């Protein structure tokens, strides 16, 4: 049976889609609020982008252990309610004439914590909801809506900013998060409270997750590769908004459209990923997707206020194509290799490394943008993303053509003497 007929998956898919629209709008919309309404500099915009993802770096590891101890569904509901209420303050603060950059930083930090909790919970919830053989399809569908959000979020956000002003446009995102919480609340499946292991201390459970990932050759390669790629992507993403909106004087609607073209590439990746995975195998598909994304990223620094804007947009689309191909297979491999009782900690450890690189990349992008120039910083980001293919290429993933198994000796954690 296709997952389109799976009641609970449809609701989770809907909730994740609304959340992704909010995430991708916020990552463009909040910097536009800062730049257009509060006259933020490149460094200040970079600092705002840092706060939007910094929770993965600051509390990512304890969040994974905490999620493993609790039912995932209530966590997802609370996370989306929190994100919606925080973002609702932006138009209220603007209406009252008291909105400041400091308040935007606080809102971004709070939304970052909500995103961390929702993302950690839902990727651990999915293997409970689906059969093992449904995970690739499920992850492909979730990644396809992530790509739709990459198209619709920035495009809709850019035009809403242009039509209604930056603060009021954020109100639509707040509503989306509240609707997402409602969708999760209607999921019928009720999971049992996870059984606590022998190690009941939070620090011990965090250590278990770290040890499992770093001793596992495949999971370690996926984590390092993802961290390097995100470091480069967030250096690029932070600076390119400033380049387009400030230096090249591109309208907010066109800025949103430029990012939307990248999302279209992600849709292509979601459409072809299952066929590529069947043809090449899940392991080779991971590094091929990363290679496509890294090479295509070398076109983005060429962006200018002429035809090269759209050439860079096409390169950004190919980055999204390769990234979705990589992500779908990476997620399925992780979910199949890891025991269920370690899913939250494994996912949190990898996300600590992969998503923790995001605020570092955003801060680095804002800093370098003012120190060496915007376009030069784009080249730094592009090179970092290209290097990310090396850890997955020089790992067992290169020859992993069958479905991964936790007992596969190639995939098993290395022994420590």
From TrEMBL:
<keyword id="KW-1133">Transmembrane helix</keyword>
<feature type="transmembrane region" description="Helical">
    <location>
        <begin position="377"/>
        <end position="394"/>
    </location>
</feature>
<dbReference type="Pfam" id="PF05977">
    <property type="entry name" value="MFS_3"/>
</dbReference>
<feature type="transmembrane region" description="Helical">
    <location>
        <begin position="88"/>
        <end position="118"/>
    </location>
</feature>
<feature type="transmembrane region" description="Helical">
    <location>
        <begin position="221"/>
        <end position="243"/>
    </location>
</feature>
<dbReference type="InterPro" id="IPR036259">
    <property type="entry name" value="MFS_trans_sf"/>
</dbReference>
<dbReference type="GO" id="GO:0022857">
    <property type="term" value="F:transmembrane transporter activity"/>
</dbReference>
<dbReference type="InterPro" id="IPR010290">
    <property type="entry name" value="TM_effector"/>
</dbReference>
<keyword id="KW-0472">Membrane</keyword>
<feature type="transmembrane region" description="Helical">
    <location>
        <begin position="45"/>
        <end position="67"/>
    </location>
</feature>
<feature type="domain" description="Major facilitator superfamily (MFS) profile">
    <location>
        <begin position="218"/>
        <end position="417"/>
    </location>
</feature>
<keyword id="KW-1003">Cell membrane</keyword>
<feature type="transmembrane region" description="Helical">
    <location>
        <begin position="163"/>
        <end position="184"/>
    </location>
</feature>
<dbReference type="InterPro" id="IPR020846">
    <property type="entry name" value="MFS_dom"/>
</dbReference>
<feature type="transmembrane region" description="Helical">
    <location>
        <begin position="255"/>
        <end position="273"/>
    </location>
</feature>
<feature type="transmembrane region" description="Helical">
    <location>
        <begin position="285"/>
        <end position="303"/>
    </location>
</feature>
<feature type="transmembrane region" description="Helical">
    <location>
        <begin position="309"/>
        <end position="328"/>
    </location>
</feature>
<keyword id="KW-0812">Transmembrane</keyword>
<protein>
    <recommendedName>
        <fullName>Major facilitator superfamily (MFS) profile domain-containing protein</fullName>
    </recommendedName>
</protein>
<feature type="transmembrane region" description="Helical">
    <location>
        <begin position="348"/>
        <end position="365"/>
    </location>
</feature>
<dbReference type="GO" id="GO:0005886">
    <property type="term" value="C:plasma membrane"/>
</dbReference>
<keyword id="KW-0813">Transport</keyword>
């Amino acid at each position: 049976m296709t997952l389109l007929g799976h009641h609970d998956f449809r609701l989770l898919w809907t909730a994740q889609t609304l959340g992704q629209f909010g995430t991708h709008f916020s990552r463009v919309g909040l910097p536009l609020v800062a730049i257009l309404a509060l006259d933020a500099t490149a460094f200040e915009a970079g600092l705002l982008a840092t706060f939007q993802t910094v929770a993965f770096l600051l509390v990512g590891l304890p969040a994974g252990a905490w999620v493993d101890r609790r039912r995932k569904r209530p966590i997802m509901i609370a996370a989306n309610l929190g994100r919606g209420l925080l973002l609702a303050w932006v138009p209220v603060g603007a209406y009252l004439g008291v909105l400041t950059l400091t308040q935007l930083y606080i809102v971004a930090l709070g939304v970052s914590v909500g995103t961390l909790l929702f993302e950690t919970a839902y990727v651990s919830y999915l293997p409970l909801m689906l059969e093992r053989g449904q995970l690739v399809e499920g992850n492909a569908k979730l990644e396809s809506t992530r790509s739709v959000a990459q198209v619709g979020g920035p495009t809709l956000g850019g035009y809403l900013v242009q039509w209604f002003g930056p603060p009021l446009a954020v109100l639509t995102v707040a509503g989306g998060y509240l609707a997402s919480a409602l969708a999760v609340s209607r999921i019928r499946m009720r999971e049992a409270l996870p059984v606590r292991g022998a190690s009941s201390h939070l620090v011990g459970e965090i250590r278990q997750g770290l040890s499992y990932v770093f001793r596992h050759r495949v999971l370690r390669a996926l984590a390092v590769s993802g961290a390097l790629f995100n470091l480069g992507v967030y250096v690029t993403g932070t600076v390119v908004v400033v380049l387009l909106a400030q230096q090249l004087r591109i309208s907010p609607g066109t800025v949103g459209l430029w990012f939307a073209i990248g999302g279209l590439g992600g849709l292509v990746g979601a459409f072809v990923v299952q066929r590529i995975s069947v043809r090449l195998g899940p392991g080779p598909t991971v590094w091929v997707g990363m290679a496509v994304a890294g090479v295509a990223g070398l076109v983005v620094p060429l962006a200018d206020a002429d035809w090269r804007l759209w050439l860079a947009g096409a390169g950004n689309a190919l980055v999204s194509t390769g990234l979705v191909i990589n992500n779908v297979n990476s997620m399925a491999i992780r979910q199949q290799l890891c025991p269920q009782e370690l899913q939250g900690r494994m996912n949190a450890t990898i996300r600590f490394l992969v998503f923790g690189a995001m605020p570092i990349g955003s801060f680095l992008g804002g800093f370098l943008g003012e120190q060496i120039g915007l376009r030069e910083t784009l080249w730094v980001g592009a090179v970092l993303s290209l290097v990310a293919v090396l850890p997955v290429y020089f790992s067992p993933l290169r020859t992993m053509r069958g479905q991964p198994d936790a007992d596969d000796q190639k995939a098993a954690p290395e022994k420590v003497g």
